[in-house]
Amino acid sequence: MTNKKSDDQDRIVIKKYANRRLYNTATSSYVTLDHLSQMVKENTDFVVYDAKTGDDITRPVLTQIIVEEESKGQNLLPINFLRQLIGFYGDSLQGLVPGYLEQSMQSFAHNQEQMREYMQGTMSGIFPFGQFEEMNKQNMALFEQTMKMFSPFAKEGENGAAGNTPHAGASAASPAKADASLDELKSQLEAMQAQLNTLANSKTDK
Predict the structure, then answer these.
(1) Which of the listed residues 44, 58, 93, 145 has the most CB atoms within 10 Å of its CB?
(2) 92-99, long-range: CB within 8 Å, 24+ apart, which pairs?
(3) Angle subtended at Cα 97 by Cα 92 and Cα 98, rounded to the nearest 5 degrees
(4) What integer pLDDT is reported at residue 1 of this predicted model?
(5) For residue range 74-133, what is the model confidence (pLDDT) as tens digits?
(6) Main-chain dihedrals φ then ψ at residue 22, nearest 5 degrees
(7) Domain range spanning residue 46?
(8) Which residue has the higher pLDDT, 7 or 20?
(9) How much is the pLDDT for 157?
(10) Cβ within 8 Å of residue 23, ≥6 positions away
(11) Could you read off the pLDDT of 9-45 as tens digits, one per residue?
């Protein structure tokens, strides 16, 4: 039985067989992970099914592509990020992480064309590289700050479950801390967007 969805007619269906071979039903040919990687880069939508069970295995296959790329030296995932990400598996706040990561990548993708223009400008000496480097550092610091922000709440929950007595007023302070941290993150995101706009305007003026 195949667990295909009704919208599969708009996507290319890839079948994975027991011998780990991948079959593209649209081209009636076997493909490799490199082919699927290229399809992703070309914004070609596809879904991968286990040929025997019919289960949707798109997520693990995409994860496998990332592992393959990382093993080739195409390192996009910092060690600290990987450690933090692994730490959230099984955590009470695990459900919040996917949404945050997706939103962060969408925000980055929204500005990627501007960033490409800036990088191309570097070759002609137009691009203010120092400002871009500083903005990149702020972006990474913002992400790490957010990841660390989740941890104290998880630890407080563990301490409570263990029977530790919380500090007086701690339960009331935690929501306030969360609101303050979120407000600070919002302010930093707005500041980064303002930097992008400033860089874009300065490049246009030149």
Answers:
(1) 58
(2) 92/154, 92/157, 93/150, 93/153, 93/154, 96/150, 97/150
(3) 125
(4) 42
(5) 788 899 989 999 999 999 888 988 888 888 888 877 777 777 776 666 555 544 555 555
(6) -105, 130
(7) 6-71
(8) 20
(9) 47
(10) 14, 15, 16, 17, 29, 30, 31, 51
(11) 689 999 999 888 999 999 999 999 999 999 999 999 9
Phi, then psi, of 56 in degrees rounded to 5: -75, 115
| Predicted local confidence at residue 93, as pLDDT | 84
Q: Write phi, then psi, for 26 (nearest 5 degrees).
A: -75, -35
Give how many domains the chain has, as a whole number. Answer: 2
The β-bridge relationship of strands 29-31 and 12-16 is unpaired
Point out the domain boundary residue: 71, 96, 119: 71
Q: Is residue 103 part of a domain?
A: yes
DSSP per-residue letters across 26-74: TTTEEE-HHHHHHHHHTT--EEEEETTT--B-HHHHHHHHHHHHHHTT-
Indicate the residue among 71, 96, 124 that finishes a domain.
71
